[in-house]
Amino acid sequence: MSTRAAVTENCLTANDWICGEYLRTRAPELTDATVEHLWITVVSVLIGVAVALPLALLARARPAFAGPLLGLTTLLYTIPSLAMFSLLLPLFGLSAALVVTGLVLYSLTILVRNILAGLAAVPDEAREAARGMGYGPVRILWEVELPLALPALMAGVRMATVSTVALTTVGALIGRGGLGDLIDEGVQTTFKAQVLTASVLCVLLAVVADLLLLGLQRLLTPWTRIRRAGEAV
């Protein structure tokens, strides 16, 4: 046996935290878990945005509804994940839909608040100018208000995404947690390399997702860069 092979075998036998042999032999398992983690995160955030936008618009149109709505979404966020999944279990069973639905409900408090904040920050002058050009309410919303609210909206999406990446691991309770399944299995078996590798991948997934969304935000809001450049001058 070569020296290198002996070292890699010893790291598994010694149950080291860092072990190259684990990465080599379990690469397919790590890839599958990462893909599942990413899929659950993306679907949950997209559905969360699709639900949060009309709720935020309703709250803005009917201010009396805003307080109860924000209170409800905040209450949902405070429910422990085990209790949340138990409440949803009769509806969805032990499926990925159970995890996705729970994550969507958790994301609403962040998304609704940020959408409302972004819309509230749109200058009245911009709305008045659009009305003067003959824009109707729907066109003002889609062509004036939402574009100007994008920085706040994207900030909410970034926060919701990072939060969802972390909360997805809780899906390990029902075997639908992506990297969380590997973390839970590693903890149960005291397999150090598996726990550390899956945890690091989870952190990297959150960081990469945040950076990609930040880049998308900068691409979609070029006027914010121009404004900062003008202020710097």
Automatic annotation (TrEMBL):
Its main location: membrane. SUPFAM superfamilies: MetI-like (SSF161098). Pfam families: BPD_transp_1 (PF00528). Keywords: Membrane, Transmembrane, Transmembrane helix, Transport. The chain crosses the membrane at residues 38-58, 65-85, 91-112, 148-175, 195-216. Residues 34-213 form the ABC transmembrane type-1 domain. It is a multi-pass membrane protein. It is found in: Cell membrane; Membrane. Gene3D superfamilies: MetI-like. Belongs to the binding-protein-dependent transport system permease family. This is ABC transporter permease. It comes from Streptomyces yaizuensis. The lineage of its organism: Bacteria, Bacillati, Actinomycetota, Actinomycetes, Kitasatosporales.
